[in-house]
Structure formats: structure tokens, C-alpha cells
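quick one before i forget lol
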Amino acid sequence: MFRTYLLFALILVSVTSAQNQWALLESHTAANLRGIHSPNGLVAWASGEGIILRTEDGGAHWARCSIPLGGEKLDFRGIWAWDASTAIVMSSGLGDLSRLYKTTDACSHWTEERTNEDKEGFWDAFGFQTQDFGLLGGEKIGVLIGDPVHDRFHTEVMLFGHGWFFDDASCVAHSNESAFAASNSAVFVFGSRRYMIATGGRGGPRVLLSPLLAYLDSSKPCLGVPVPLAGGSDSSGAFSLVFRDLKHGVVVGGDYKKPDEAARTAAWTADGGHHWTAASKPPHGYRSSVAWDPDAKIWIAVGTNGTDISHDDGKTWQIFDDGNWNALSLPYVVGPKGRIARIRRVATKP
């Protein structure tokens, strides 16, 4: 009997410890949140179905932003912020339901930057380079991607702050291949060097590497590299892609309709994305977002059945928590029903 009680106590402590890995914050909304970006630990912006939120005090208080005119029913799946005043938000949807809006006055007013003009198009993700990696361009270069139109991924580039323009070197897609608008992390930008796209669907999964200096030379094709993640269905593939330097990166995914299936949910590269190796011990389910924590020197991946961390560049993963999450921008994580949390404690390396 004593052993039974001891086992129950250990399980209870373990569950409680796991739940305490993320400190839940009060968002005052029940909206499904998929967009999150924090330019620093104090300031963060979040977005979701018909809602945009922002904090200036580390997440203690979240203020509801005004919504761009006509955007009350838009699904804001991506957001990118530079400070407490300036941010761009992306809505995802068919045709002109995909839009970009920008604010420079702490979301009191929004101006429309782009609207998808192709009625068959669907925007998936956008981002700017924040780590210069010793390259030109820095965060003045941005990339917006959408599902393939006319057999090519819709791709627009912002070069040195001079507006968005179509990239003539946009990547050729396989039949039934697309990107996922699950966490605004299906594209990763290497400054003026290149961008990469994580793909899925029945034609994936792959990682697409744009040509070097793609913004200046449209004569070279993208390089398509297969990745060892779940595939073969419209709901499976690579969902999120991040690099910590020019060589080391992690891609995560799986099948969002099979959230508890752990096989083929993460892979890693040590040669700049030219070859990918499946994690020998993968995350414990489908993962929609991954991030590198430079302070703790760990990778963190989240999905609808929890969080996993890796101390060895994505080769093996350990369970961190069992929460329901969509997207990461450290130190924050967001999910359905208005869930927002801030990382409070990271398990030390065993």
C-alpha cells in the first residue's frame, strides 16, 4: 500500500512540475491564437481569429488592439514586431482574405500594406531576418510566402525596407505540395543570403532553399531537399523551420490530425539544410512550431499535445509539458482558447 501511495505521489509531483514549465498568463480572450512575436522579453504581440493583443510589461497585462478596418472577421495567423509601437500582422485566407497591415503607433491605427490579388492564393507565413549571421541585410529583409499558384510558391520579398515585390525566383512546387499556416514559421530568412520554406501535403515534405542572393538573381532555381518527416497526406509534413547559425537547424512537423503520433516529427541538419536526419528520439507528438533558446542553449518545440526540448541540436527530445500550443516566440507561447504563457523554468541538462 505504501508503494502505491509513493508511486501516486511521484506521478502527481511529476505532472505538477510539467505543468509549471510554462507560466500561464491572462489574455482575456477565448480566441484561437496562432501569431506571436516578441522583439524582447518585455514587449510581445499576439494575434488570432479577429484579435490582436500586445503587452509592454512582460505579459502581466495584455491590451486588446484596434482591428484594421474591415478585418474583424480575418484570421490573423502571423505577426512581427520591432518594438512596442511598430508591427506587421498577416491574415490568412483564400484570395483577398490574405492581407498585411502595419502599425507604427502601438496599434491605434493600421495601414494596409498588401492584399492577395490571386483569388486562388492563400498566404502561409512571413518573417524578417533578426540574426545577421555576419551577412548583409539584417532585419531589413523580409519574405512572405503563400501556397503555390501556377506551380510556384507565392513569394514576395521586402528588400532594405523598400516595399514588397514578387520574387521571380520563387520555388517550383510538387503536385499537391503546400506550406502550413499553423504558426507563422514555415519560412526562415537568412538575410540577403537566402530564405528557406518548410513544405508538406501529399507532395511533401521538403525544405526548399532559395538561390544565394535570390533577391538579385532570378536565373537560378530553388533547391528542394526531402526531409524525413511524416508525409503522404494533406495534413502531414514539415510545419516549422529555424536555424541557430548558418549550419545548424531543426525542422518539426508530423500530422496534425494525429497529434499523439510521435514518429517522424523532427529532423536536424548540420550543413545548412542540404541534408536532414530524423531525430533518433523524436518529440512525443505532432509539432507546429520550434525555436532556439540561445540563453538556455536548447531547442523548444510545441504542438497540440505538449512541448519537448532538445539539448543536442534536435537529435533527441525530452517531454517538457502536455499543454495545447500552436506557436512560439520565446519567451512566449500561444494556443487555442486564448492560451498564452511565458517560460518560467527550463529543465537542466541531465
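fyi The longest strand covers residues 142-149.
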